């Protein structure tokens, strides 16, 4: 069996999130070097603050400033920081209960080594030089043996509050399409299209995914299909897609390749868009170096009888 | 006055799982899953068309592709159309949904499956995407780091120490020596600190795998299985997402789920605990009040194989299989999801007296 194909797959999103009143005040506060908590119905101060009481589910927004100094409640030494984490040198993850708060905040703690960290260690916020209203406005915590910080009693009302965050996320995968699709893609590189026949219902699936969706059994018998096929149904696309160099309107169609029992889709060219019809016989058009047909064009044959493709719609 | 609907007895009647492996490049998800689906159907003699309800669990983030579970449906044979649902959770939660479906009387049989391929992506980082997106996820605290915070809290509380954790790791992997599906079997070195105080030996292997069970109600279960594993109770609970709000040395959600599932009514002889980290077994044993006479994780548990999204369903399946074989009369199965045991499901399974 040939090697399965593999390729890098990068999934990257800038998640844009709006903030509720409490989150907005907290993150705006970080921008202004003020740490805010929220007071619950039973008088506890939660830092980081939430908008609903975790016990009663009541909406809460009684903001309270707490100190930028606090105590480590638990920690873990991270000898090999990973991408995106707050520090690039070895550091401790720590839950820190800030002075004046009843709950702990997760962040990084910059320390020379694990021997310098313990539960109960006194720490203070190290502010980021550039602050924009995100949790990373706290660059990290650092050990601190001075007096507790003195909150100024900030009300949580700011000029120009932060109302949203953009949280970039990137994950790097190595994608493998598995055995069946590898065979399909390898055949395409020789300008051939192969499907797989179901051992139970005898239908030929293309592109093959290694399973018959009707019978739920594995497929493995490869069958070459096409290159010609029949348009079973189509639509006319009138909106230009970003980064797609195709003039609109154009036709996108389901095409049942000869010998296949499932239609695949492709663009129809070489014919005015308003002359494309069900039953039109088409063939693939390859461009130099392409890994799949650029589009399908009419073969000039008579149209296929409806009965020959009605099961494939 | 309306009468209550008749109570339906529901059982796990069959279980199958893959051999769990570090990678399975040569297989797409459906190719990995299909043999498991066939095996679980074969155990009952049922065909796809005989299944009234199908429910699956998986996560798009493991695959890095949207709606990846729809491709896996090819392995079920979803034509003609079937009654089907999906949870973006461990398959144990899919089993919970299927159980409620059977309780309503709308279905007599259900197929539950789940799968996870962790090999394509950096799973420690992938799991950060399930964290609070405002205050936590931007810091990218990976799954081992969060478990290590819980571990240190337990050590500080005097609930465990490193030798005790090493013993948990060793016992699970020795148990897995008899489990042909496990990824890590027999002695595994405790190794270096991954995130201190957790060493590699305290952490689960990263791997690919799938599992499936069949549920059936009442007499249908008796027809399909010589000794059905009756679900006497099942419940799941969640805790605050803020780690700093929780007491990481305890798992009140597990205790509450166990109470609602009836786990404390009579002792169990077996417990399959979904504890990917050694420290979490310490927390769960305490929350579930498991004595030393209870056989814990005879399969090796998640420390021996942790296919994400399937490892919890496997706990239910392993517990049920012991009842099927007559090795257990009353077993507890636990599944977890989220950081530091955030969400917990407990099921109590029983075999009829022999
Ligand atoms: Zn078939």
Structure report:
The complex is a heterodimer of chains A (313) and B (354). Chain A is built from three helices and 18 strands. With 313 residues, chain A is mostly beta strands. Chain A has a five-stranded antiparallel sheet with strand order 7-6-5-8-9, with no helix packed on it. Chain A has a five-stranded antiparallel sheet with strand order 16-15-14-17-18, with no helix packed on it. In chain A, β15 and β16 form a beta hairpin. In chain A, 36% of the residues are buried. In chain B, the strands form two sheets. In chain B, strands 3-2-4-7-1-8-12-11-9-10 form a ten-stranded mixed sheet. In chain B, β11 and β12 form a beta hairpin. At the A-B interface, β1, β5, β6, β7 and β10 of A face α1, α5 and α6 of B. The site of zinc ion (ZN) has 7 residues of chain A, from loops.
Question: What's the gist of this structure?
Answer:
The complex is a heterodimer of chains A (313) and B (354). Chain A is mainly β and 313 residues long.
Task: Give the beta-strand count of chain A.
Answer: 18
The overall average pLDDT of chain A, rounded, is: 94
**Class based on secondary structure composition and strand pairing of chain B:** alpha/beta
The tally of beta strands of chain B, per DSSP, is 12
Taking all Cα atoms into account, the compactness measure Rg of chain A is: 31 Å
Strand content of chain A: 35-45%
Q: Enumerate how many helices of chain A there are, as a single number.
A: 3
Task: Report the helical percentage of chain A.
Answer: under 10%
Unreliable runs of chain A: none
Strand order of the largest sheet of chain A: 7-6-5-8-9
Query: What is the ordering of alpha helices and beta strands of chain A?
Result: EHEEEEEEEEEHEEEEEEEEH
Share of residues in helices of chain B: 25-40%
Structural class of chain A: mainly beta
> Which hetero compounds are present in the coordinates?
zinc ion
């Amino acid at each position: 069996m040939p090697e399965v194909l593999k390729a890098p797959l990068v999934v990257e999103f800038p998640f844009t999130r709006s903030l509720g009143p409490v989150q907005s005040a907290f993150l705006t506060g970080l921008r202004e070097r003020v740490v805010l908590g929220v007071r619950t119905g039973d008088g506890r101060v939660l830092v980081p603050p939430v908008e609903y009481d975790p016990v009663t589910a009541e909406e809460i927004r009684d903001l309270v400033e707490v100190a930028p100094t606090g105590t480590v409640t638990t920690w873990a030494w991270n000898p090999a920081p990973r991408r995106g984490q707050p520090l690039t040198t070895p550091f401790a993850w720590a839950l820190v209960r800030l002075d004046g708060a009843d709950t702990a905040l997760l962040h990084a703690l910059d320390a020379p080594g694990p021997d310098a960290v313990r539960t109960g260690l006194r720490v203070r916020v190290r502010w980021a030089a550039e602050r924009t209203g995100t949790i990373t406005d706290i660059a990290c915590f650092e050990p601190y043996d001075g007096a507790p910080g003195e909150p100024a009693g900030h009300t949580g009302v700011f000029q120009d509050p932060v109302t949203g965050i953009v949280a970039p996320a990137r994950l790097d995968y190595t994608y493998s399409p598995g055995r069946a699709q590898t065979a399909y893609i390898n055949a395409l590189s020789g300008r051939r299209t192969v499907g797989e026949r179901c051992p139970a219902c005898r239908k030929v699936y293309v592109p093959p995914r290694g399973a018959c969706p009707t019978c739920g059994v594995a497929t493995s018998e490869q069958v070459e299909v096409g290159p010609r096929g029949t348009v079973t149904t189509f639509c006319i696309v009138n909106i230009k897609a970003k980064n797609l160099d195709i003039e609109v309107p154009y036709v996108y169609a389901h095409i049942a390749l000869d010998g296949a029992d499932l239609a695949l889709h492709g663009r129809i060219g070489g014919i005015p868009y308003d002359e494309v019809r069900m039953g039109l016989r088409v063939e693939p058009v390859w461009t130099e170096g392409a890994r799949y047909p650029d589009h399908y064009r009419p073969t000039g044959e008579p149209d296929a009888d409806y009965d020959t493709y009605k099961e494939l719609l | 006055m309306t009468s209550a609907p008749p109570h339906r007895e529901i059982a796990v009647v069959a279980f199958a799982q893959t051999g769990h492996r570090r990678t399975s490049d040569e297989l797409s998800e459906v190719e990995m899953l299909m043999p498991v689906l066939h095996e679980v159907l074969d155990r009952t003699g049922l065909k796809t068309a005989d299944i009234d309800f199908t429910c699956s669990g998986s996560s798009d983030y493991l695959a890095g592709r949207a709606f990846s579970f729809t491709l896996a449906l090819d392995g079920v044979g979803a034509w003609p159309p079937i009654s089907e649902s999906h949870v973006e959770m461990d398959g144990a939660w899919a089993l919970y949904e299927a159980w409620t479906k059977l309780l309503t009387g709308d279905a007599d049989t259900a197929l539950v499956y789940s799968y996870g391929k962790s090999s394509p992506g950096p799973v420690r980082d992938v799991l950060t995407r399930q964290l609070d997106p405002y205050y936590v996820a931007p810091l990218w605290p990976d799954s081992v780091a969060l478990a290590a915070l819980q571990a240190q809290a337990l050590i500080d509380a005097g609930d465990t120490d490193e030798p005790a954790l090493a013993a948990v790791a060793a016992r699970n992997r020795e148990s897995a020596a008899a489990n042909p599906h496990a990824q890590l079997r027999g002695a595994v070195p405790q190794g270096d600190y991954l995130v201190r105080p957790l060493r590699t030996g305290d952490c689960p292997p990263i791997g690919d795998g799938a599992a499936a069970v069949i549920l059936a109600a009442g007499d249908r279960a008796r027809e399909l299985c010589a000794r059905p594993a009756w679900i006497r109770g099942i419940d799941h609970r969640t805790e605050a997402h803020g780690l700093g709000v929780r007491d990481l040395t305890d798992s009140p959600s597990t205790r509450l789920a166990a109470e609602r599932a009836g786990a404390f009514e009579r002792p169990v002889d077996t417990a399959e605990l979904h504890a990917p980290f050694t420290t979490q077994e310490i927390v769960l044993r305490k929350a579930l009040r498991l004595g030393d006479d209870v056989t814990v994780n005879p399969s090796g548990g998640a420390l021996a194989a942790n296919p994400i999204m399937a490892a919890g369903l496997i706990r239910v399946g392993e517990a049920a299989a012991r009842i099927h074989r007559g090795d257990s009369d009353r077993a507890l199965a636990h599944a977890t999801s989220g950081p530091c045991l955030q969400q917990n499901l407990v099921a109590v399974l029983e075999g009829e007296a022999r």
